[in-house]
Design brief:
single chain, Phosphorylase Kinase, domain 1, 2 domains
Length: 295
């Protein structure tokens, strides 16, 4: 593969305030700059090599969904694709092109807002044991990847390191208060329902997704990334077969590869071979292409 992944982003003179598994966040005074790198993580470990252009796919997919959903829920975005960079960022245009977003300085809520429309991942594992997902009782007789009778809201705690922890709605209320918890549950279910119906028309099933919200001047905003292959499970609708694991357009492909190794899921993570990198890049690109009908 000729293109090299962009794994680390430093902007001399611009203060970096956080470096996450994928995103770098810079302080622009009254605003923030989010930059999505090409890093990829699995099992809470960042791989030593990345997926070329992955950060572009994540950022442009988020822009697409912010455009589609801003009538349903206000978001933190201040600049749209194609808007010129502020003068202070102009020297870094090459590094920032298509992978950056300027946003409001919202205060993130300490709860992640997960909506599940299908029975997969940790939800399927819990259901097999107890017939519940995050404590919510579900009908008997569901199989792996069954579509749920109605989407469910299953909040989680945010973990700086390690796994996020699924929590009950009552624990979300304890963390952020009943009013905010009810508002983010309603907003999450509304956003998921809209996105699920839209994506299905484009040949993608959104099995589940994670939203994040923040407060800015007392206003509740949708923040971070939204409905990307990193924050969601995307399945090709034409290949959907309940009762088994599904092919996907997200990093489940990388997880499946790593699960076949003798690696113990602790750092340092093994490098991904070239064919896995190329196939993963193709999956991210295909997800963007299907959803947006653009290259």
């Amino acid at each position: 593969m000729s293109e090299a992944p962009l794994l680390r982003i430093d902007l001399p003179g611009i203060i970096k305030i956080k470096s996450g598994k994928v995103r770098e966040i810079f302080d622009l005074g009254d605003r923030l700059l989010f930059v999505a790198s090409d890093r990829i993580s699995a099992f809470d470990c960042v791989m030593p090599n990345g997926i070329p252009r992955k950060g572009e796919v994540l950022t442009q997919t988020s822009h697409f969904w912010f455009d589609k959903t801003e009538a349903l829920m206000p978001n933190h975005r201040l600049a749209r694709p194609g808007d010129p960079l502020p003068p202070v960022l102009a020297p870094f245009e090459r590094e920032l092109a298509r992978r950056s977003m300027i946003v409001r300085k919202a205060t993130p809520l300490p709860v992640e807002c997960v909506v599940r429309g299908y029975l997969a991942g940790s939800g399927w594992q819990e259901y097999k044991k107890s017939g519940t997902v995050c404590g919510i009782s579900l009908p008997e007789g569901l199989v792996e990847c069954s579509e749920l009778p109605t989407p469910i809201f299953t909040p989680a705690t945010k973990a700086e390191t390690g796994h996020d922890e699924n929590i009950s709605f009552d624990r979300a209320v304890a963390a952020i208060g009943a009013d905010l918890a009810n508002r983010v549950r309603e907003a999450s279910l509304k956003l998921y329902g809209f996105a699920r119906d839209f994506a299905r028309q484009r040949g993608i099933l959104i099995a589940d997704t994670k939203f994040e919200f923040g407060l800015w001047n007392g206003q509740l905003l949708l923040i971070d990334e939204v409905l990307t292959p990193d924050s969601s499970r995307f399945w090709p609708a034409d290949a959907y077969r309940p009762g088994q694991a599904q092919p996907s357009f997200d990093k489940q492909f990388v997880r499946d590869y790593l699960s076949g190794l003798s690696w113990d899921k602790t750092p340092p993570a093994p490098a991904l071979p070239g064919d896995i990198v190329a196939k993963t890049q193709a999956k991210y690109m295909e997800a963007y292409r299907r959803l947006t009908a653009q290259e």
